[in-house]
Amino acid sequence: MEVKPMSKPEEKKSCQIEIPFSLEHASVVKRLRLPKSDGRLEEMVSELFEKSSSIARMRAVYLVSRARVIDRETVDIDGASFTSRALSRNLIDQETVFPFIATVGRELDEFSAPAGNVMMQFSLDWIKTMALVSAVDYLAEFLKAKYRLGDLAHMNPGEIEDWPITAQKPLFDLFHGAEKRVGVTLTQGGLMKPIKSRSGILFPNEKGFVSCLLCTQQRCPGRRAHYSPEKVKEFLD
């Protein structure tokens, strides 16, 4: 018998957490590949890092949701329908999932480097992005501890072509406005404000899945695995 998704997203109680700025200065310097001989440049990055850590107000909101795989490319989560072959494959036999919205906060997002200083602007953008990655990592570890889970993986709308950014709308609909409590809004075009925010689905996964395996964007602060044509064939064909 065919299982059809519900017509409207089911409203559930959302949970909000405050996230500490846990990004390490050494990891930022390493990822930026700063020349050791340029002491002024490293000092500049240190100043940006210290300022960022002092003003960041990172937060997240999440749901404990029920997922049902409808077919090889459709998943129902609390009544919202999502089309993605990779998501469908990952959620087979996974009934409980965690939709989330995380942000570095307006304070850090709006912090800017001096106009005209390209290197400072570049470095600050990397700091913000790495802070956002660390925020999602913190949320995953929080969920693992709270719900006694094993490894978690996550997928984000717009990260790969298989799950386009248009999926942001039904994902946000699951929260029924709760995202505003952490200061995040969604534009008509499907972009989040603050810009350094991320939404997605966290789910149990013991197979080491990371969406980086399916992503062709090479220069990314959050990349954790090389692009794999074999995995693309496995998940998307």
If you had to describe this structure to a student in words, what would you say it looks like?
With 237 residues, the chain is of the alpha+beta class. It has a single domain, classed as NADH Oxidase (3-Layer(aba) Sandwich), CATH 3.40.109. Helix content is 33%, strand content 21%. The strands form two sheets. Strands 1, 2, 3, 4, 5, 6, 7 and 10 form an eight-stranded antiparallel sheet that branches. A two-stranded antiparallel sheet has the order 8-9.
Number of helices: 7
Biggest β-sheet: count, sense, barrel?
8 strands, antiparallel
Secondary-structure element string: EHHEEEEHEHHEHEEEH
Number of strand segments: 10
How confident overall, as mean pLDDT? 88
CATH top level class name: Alpha Beta
Helix content: 25-40%
Structural class: alpha+beta
Hey, roughly how much beta strand do the residues contain? 15-25%
Number of domains: 1
